[in-house]
Amino acid sequence: MSAKGKCLCGRVQYTFTHRLSGLDVCHCKNCQRQSGAAFVPFVAIPMVALQLTGSPKAFMDNDTESGKTVARHFCGDCGSPLYVVVEAAPQTAYVAVGTLDDTHDLRPECHGWTASKQEWIQILDSATQHEFEPHLQPESTVPE
Ligand SMILES: [Zn+2]
Ligand SMILES: [Zn+2]
User: Fold this and answer.
1) Which ligand number lies closest to the CA of residue 13?
2) Which ligand lies nearest to the CA atom of residue 56 in the structure?
3) How many helices (H) and strands (E) does the chain have?
C-alpha cells in the first residue's frame, strides 16, 4: 500500500509504498521523553522505500537502555518525531505512526520495553509483550 505523512508544521513530508506490518509500540523512557507521550507506536519499512521532502534533523541518542545508538529523526521546526533508525537494523526506518495520514488499518504487533511502561497504561490487545528489547524482524530492503 502507499502511505503518506508529515510533521505538524508540514515542512517535512513523506510517502512510501510498502505492505505495512503491525505496529511496534515502544514504551522505553527515551521514546517517552522525546515524544512527551506515554508510548510511541512505530511501523517498520525499508529505508529505501521512504521518500522524504524537507530536511529532518537527526539526534543520535546514545544514552539508551539497550546501549545501542538510536538515530531519532525529527522536524527541526515543529519538533515532531518522524522516524528512528536503530543500530541493529540500519536499513529499516521505524516511522512514528502518529505522523501518518491514515492509520485506521494499523494494529499493534508487539510492545517493547514494557518494564518502563507508564503505570496507568493497560495493554488490552493480544500483541506480544517484551519487558525489555523486542526482537527485531529480519530487515526487508525491498519495497513491497
Ligand atoms: Zn515540522
Ligand atoms: Zn523507544
Assistant:
1) 1
2) 1
3) 1, 11
Ligand 2 centroid from CA 91, angstroms: 18
99 CA from centroid of ligand 1 (Å):
10
The answer to whether the pTM exceeds 0.85 is yes
Determine whether domain 2-129 maps to CATH 3.90.1590.10.
Answer: yes
What is the length of the chain? 144
Q: 75 in the Ramachandran plot: left (φ > 0), alpha (ψ -120 to 50) or beta?
A: beta
Write out pLDDT tens, residues 98-129: 999 999 999 999 999 999 999 999 999 999 99
The x, y and z cell numbers of residue 97, run together, are 505512526
Expressed in angstroms and rounded, the spacing between residue 3 Cα and the centre of ligand 1 is 18
- Sign, CA torsion 15/29/88/68: positive
The set of cell numbers assigned to 53 is 521532502
